TrEMBL record:
It is found in: Nucleus. This is Transcription factor domain-containing protein. One of its GO terms (molecular function) is DNA-binding transcription factor activity, RNA polymerase II-specific. InterPro entries: TF_fung (IPR050815). GO terms for biological process: DNA-templated transcription. Keywords: Metal-binding, Nucleus, Transcription, Transcription regulation. Its main location: nucleus. The keyword Cell membrane does not apply. It comes from the Eukaryota. The lineage of its organism: Eukaryota, Fungi, Dikarya, Ascomycota, Pezizomycotina. GO terms for cellular component: nucleus.
Length: 417
């Protein structure tokens, strides 16, 4: 038995023990998780799995490992665990080991990179940003070895041509996935001097698409636009979920870069002011439409909110005598406004989930981190004011955090840094 056959058999056995099928995993994945991180072409995946379902033996090694990672991010602890002997932590550990074994055999491939990104995203949502950071290091190196950054489709190449096939489009989105998720993870890793291993695309770069199943039915309906990433405008409405994440990620990347500057650097505050203006303009555009829909409109809101928290928390850490008092007050005000945005979105999301109009899988992967930041801010304000009455806003935030934690980190509702 070849290593590919052995691992393929092992993956099939795990999926059976989890009480799932390849079809159910695929349906869960593309209906939920895929909306936040569209790095797998539904068409290509369906074609690959269908071919091997017809009796052609086990799929290639990297496809088997990818199936296991998709099982990991679609496994429902609240329902699946009660029906099977599989536990989330055991499934995660197995996925990590199989991923490492597969990498020792085939080194690098697009499917292997997709597997690594799903594992890193799981670790990130699970409240383990340091583990996700380490996994992302492996992912970036797989991407470099696989040549994703060197092709004429690379997002960092302003002269890049538009992808002309499902394979090219998938690889294009895949490298964007590495770039974006790396920034999200870095926000939660302790220490502000960590540098991303990837270069963020410049203004004018091609944006990623959502890799929707319907859009893939016709090549001419693929809507990749050349959008100015430096200052978002009304064109964002046609960029899709992942395109909006890319827009917000560009601003977040700049915030992380300014954050790495020494506190005594005179340009630091002025750069934070510039980015604050851009981020608030970005949020104004996104929130000027109807109430944010879970799994869609928060794709750009979540990273923009996280970036604003980073900016104004950094400013409030300056010694009072080194910063204009008016700017310190402004930072406090912005944090209050951002916390209110998080409360409003949390209230709406909780209502949608309660009415079964949405699923916890559609919440942003950064959800719990943002909720804890808002809760910490509100609790701090209550302590300063001496209030002893329980805040309804805190209840909204805690209830949504409970929903998210039950999905991604059952039994562990610890406070994140």
């Amino acid at each position: 038995m070849t290593p590919a056959d052995r691992i393929g058999h092992q993956v099939n056995r795990i999926i059976q023990l989890a009480g799932l099928s390849q079809q159910e995993i695929s349906e869960r994945y593309f209906s939920n998780f895929h909306k936040w991180l569209p790095i797998i072409s539904p068409r290509l995946f369906r074609e690959t799995v269908t071919a091997y379902d017809r009796g052609l033996g086990h799929p290639p090694l990297d496809v088997s490992v990818l199936l296991l990672a998709m099982c990991l991010v679609t496994f429902q602890p609240a329902t699946d665990s009660s029906l099977t002997p599989i536990a989330p932590q055991g499934l995660y550990g197995t996925a990590k080991m199989v991923f490492a074994e597969a990498q020792s055999i085939i080194c690098a491939s697009s499917r292997l990179l997709q597997t690594g990104l799903l594992i890193a995203a799981y670790e990130y949502a699970n409240g383990r940003p340091e583990a996700a950071h380490i996994t992302m290091g492996t992912c970036t190196r797989i991407g470099y070895v696989d040549g994703l950054q060197d092709s004429d489709l690379a997002p960092t190449d302003l002269k890049a041509r538009q992808p002309s096939s499902s394979v090219e489009l998938e690889r294009f989105n895949l490298w964007w996935g590495v770039i974006i998720l790396e920034r999200f993870v870095l926000c939660e890793v302790k220490g502000s001097q960590q540098r991303p291993a990837t270069e963020y695309p410049s203004p004018g770069a091609l944006l990623p698409t959502d890799l929707d199943i319907d859009e893939e039915n016709s090549h001419y309906r693929l809507n990749i636009q050349r959008a100015g990433l430096c200052m978002p405008d009304e064109r964002m409405s046609s960029n899709g979920n992942f395109g909006r994440q890319a827009e917000a990620g560009f601003l977040l990347d700049q915030v992380l870069a300014v954050r790495r500057l020494p506190q005594g650097d005179r340009s630091r505050i002025s750069e934070f002011q510039r980015l604050d203006e851009h981020l608030q303009g970005f949020l104004t555009i996104l929130m000027s439409t109807d109430t944010a829909q879970i799994g869609r409109d928060c794709s750009g809101i979540a990273p923009a909110v996280r970036a604003l928290f980073l900016i104004h928390q950094e400013i409030l850490q300056y010694p009072p005598e080194t910063v204009d008092l008016q700017w310190l007050r402004y930072s406090q005000s912005v944090l209050g406004t951002v916390a209110n945005v998080v409360v409003d979105v949390a209230r709406h999301h909780k209502e949608q989930i309660a009415c079964q109009n949405a699923h916890a899988d559609l919440l942003p992967l950064s959800c719990s981190y943002t909720l804890h930041l808002a809760m910490k801010y509100i609790q701090g304000c209550m302590e300063i004011s001496g209030s002893t009455e329980r805040s309804k806003d805190l209840d909204y935030l805690a209830e949504l955090d409970h929903e998210f934690s039950n999905r991604w980190n059952p039994g562990s509702h610890h406070e994140r840094a």
